[in-house]
Amino acid sequence: LDRPKISRTTSNGIAYPATSLIPPTNWAHADESDALGYDPQRARAMLDADGWVPGPDGIRVKNGRRLSFSLVTYLGTSADHGLPEVLQGAWRAVGADASIRYVPISLMYGEPGITADGTFDVSLDGFNFDVDPDRANYLEARFDRPHGGNQARYDDPDVLAWSDAALGTYDQGARKLDYTRITARINRDVPYVPLHWQRFVYV
User: Fold this and answer.
1) What is the pLDDT of residues 137-157, one digit of tens each?
2) Most buried by CB count within 10 Å: which residue of 11, 48, 120, 178?
3) Residue 99 to residues 11, 71, 72, 102, 178: CA-CA distances in angstroms?
4) pLDDT tens digit string along 11-36?
5) What is the rounded CA–CA span in Å between residue 56 and residue 11?
6) In the 3-class helix/strand/coil scheme, how is the chain assigned residue by residue?
7) How far apart are CA 106 and CA 147, in angstroms?
């Protein structure tokens, strides 16, 4: 996904690209050179190598199965600026058919609900983080929905250990090292794909 283009075209110019769950304005922000980049040619090559062949309509097929999935979101987020359609177009450009499903926010986050039950392929969400770089609520199995914000059901013992270590000290340098390790692991595993950080003006 072309994050700079997404930021320019779907936020009325108030957002900047995100490549981790920690914004560049935060003291724990780390080098993100290993973040998943925008490379549609590589994506096509990987799909080719895995046996996904473009069909007559451009959507890839493997063993009779189309490369298709759904994206669920709710109105009132970046969806208002056409972000779901931009993502849909980017995926289609490499041969994936993504359908968009708009639901009420109560169905998205209620219990029972789509994210609480895990009944989705891809969800498009907006999150608000506080100034502390701790992201345990989104990255640890004990916080799987409905017990927290881990909608991806992500579970990595190293991330858990680094997170606990960072929360167990006031040493900012030690904490930043742990969050740098977490950022690298999340960029490797990609349970989430952060798209952009929005700037807000309060008057």
Assistant:
1) 999 999 988 788 898 999 999
2) 178
3) 22, 6, 9, 10, 38
4) 877 888 898 999 989 999 987 778 88
5) 34
6) CCHHHHHHHHCCCCEEECCCCCCCCCCCCCCCCCCCCCCHHHHHHHHHHCCCEECCCCCEEECCEECEEEEEECCCCHHHHCHHHHHHHHHHHCCCEEEEEECCHHHHHCCCCHHHHCCCCEECCCCCCCCCCCCHHHHCHHHECCCCCECCCCCCHHHHHHHHHHHCCCCHHHHHHHHHHHHHHHHHHCCCCCCEEECCCCC
7) 17
Distance, CA of 103 to CA of 109 (rounded, Å): 10
Pairing of strands 68-73, 53-54: unpaired
Burial of residue 81 (number of CB atoms within 10 Å: 0-12, 13-18, 19+): middle
**89/42 Cα distance (integer angstroms):** 17
Residue 101 confidence (pLDDT) above 60: yes
Residue 8: predicted pLDDT: 84
Which residue, chain included where needed, has tokens 């190293």?
A: 158
Q: What is the mean pLDDT of the chain?
A: 90
Confidence of residue 77 (pLDDT cuts 50, 70, 90): low
